[in-house]
Amino acid sequence: MAAKSSKQQNSGSNVHASLKSISGFVKADQEGDYHRLLNDRVRLGIVSSLAVSNKLTFNDLKHLLEVTDGNLSVHARKLEEAGYISINKSFDGRMPKTEFSIRQKGRKTLQRYLKHMEALIRATTN
Amino acid sequence: MPVDIKAEAVNNLRFIRGAIERAERVSAVSGLGGLMMGFIALCTMAVASRLPSLAEQLLVWIGAAFIAASAAIICTVFKANKNGDRLDSDSTRRFLQCLLPILLVGALMSWTLWATPHVSLLPAMWMLLYGCGLLAAGTYAVPPVMYMGSCFLIAGLITYALPPNWGNVLMGLVFGGLHFAFGYQVFKHHGG
């Protein structure tokens, strides 16, 4: 019984240590607010989709993420302000065309976010 | 209520993976290629209708299939270059892995049936096999591809039930009409 309790304590301290290192990992991030920005599913979806398709139109993203025009515009603007994506507006004939592409900062942030999630899973699995 | 960190992290990773897989589908198929395939099919129907025997008509259709496939490949490459997308993505590889074996079976079965009295079954068989291929490959492509596969399956069953002398007309209407309709959908809603 005592051995079991000691084992649980050890396991708990291991998880605590792992989570502490992750906490440091987040604090060490210079952007600071990346986890807050990418915690939203729509914004996370935009960045993830753009990471594999260099360019996506407004309609592509709208269908992929199944969101409304207004919702997509608001979240895309936040990501653009953070420097994660760029938004290019042009005309295709007479039709207005909005294209999104990911920037280097956005790509790095997504990679960092993925590593963070993997680290969390590792820490809570051990 | 306590939050399960691990479950939350796994869900987030699953969501990212899903978003990436869906985004990769967009670039895999060219709508313009579909429109061109539809146009080639309608032209082939017009040319083949002047030929007296079903075997001769089907020979023209086999030639047209190669031209249409080439047009689709060129349009896909053109679309990928225009959008700056990779053609060697996992989705494209899986799409071809689903479609090509079924087309190979179609070619083998055509060769086998050619010299038999069952040659009139070829139009229905082509539609059914192409439908199966599209239905499987559509898992890795934009949704219209899968819908088109279902329509080809239904059209194949109808063609199978109808008299053989309808073969050329049905080939034209089904291959032409469905490629036109779904090619337009892809062109309009999925980036060209």
Report on the biggest sheet of chain B. Answer: none
What is the spatial order of strands in the main beta sheet of chain A? 1-3-2
**What oligomeric state do these chains adopt?**
heterodimer
The rough form of chain A would be described as elongated
Approximately what portion of the residues of chain A adopt beta-strand conformation? 15-25%
Offer a concise description of the structure.
The complex is a heterodimer of chains A (126) and B (192). Chain A is of the alpha+beta class and 126 residues long.
Characterize the structure shown.
The complex is a heterodimer of chains A (126) and B (192). With 126 residues, chain A is α+β, with helices and mostly antiparallel strands. Chain A has one domain (2-125): Arc Repressor Mutant, subunit A (Orthogonal Bundle). In chain A, 69% of the residues lie in helices and 15% in strands. In chain A, strands 1-3-2 form a three-stranded antiparallel beta sheet. In chain A, α1 runs antiparallel to α6 (104-125). With 192 residues, chain B is mainly alpha-helical. Chain B has one domain (27-189). The chains are: A alpha+beta (126), B mainly alpha (192). Chains A and B meet through α3, β1, α4 and α6 of A and α1 of B.
What does the secondary structure layout of this molecule look like, with pairings?
The complex is a heterodimer of chains A (about 130) and B (about 190).
Chain A: H1 2-28, H2 34-38, H3 41-52, E1 55-57, H4 58-65, H5 69-81, E2 85-92, E3 95-102, H6 104-125
Antiparallel strand pairs in A: 1-3, 2-3
Helix pairs in contact in A: 1-6, 3-5
Chain B: H1 5-26, H2 31-48, H3 54-83, H4 90-114, H5 122-137, H6 143-161, H7 167-189
Helix pairs in contact in B: 2-3, 2-7, 4-5, 5-6, 5-7, 6-7
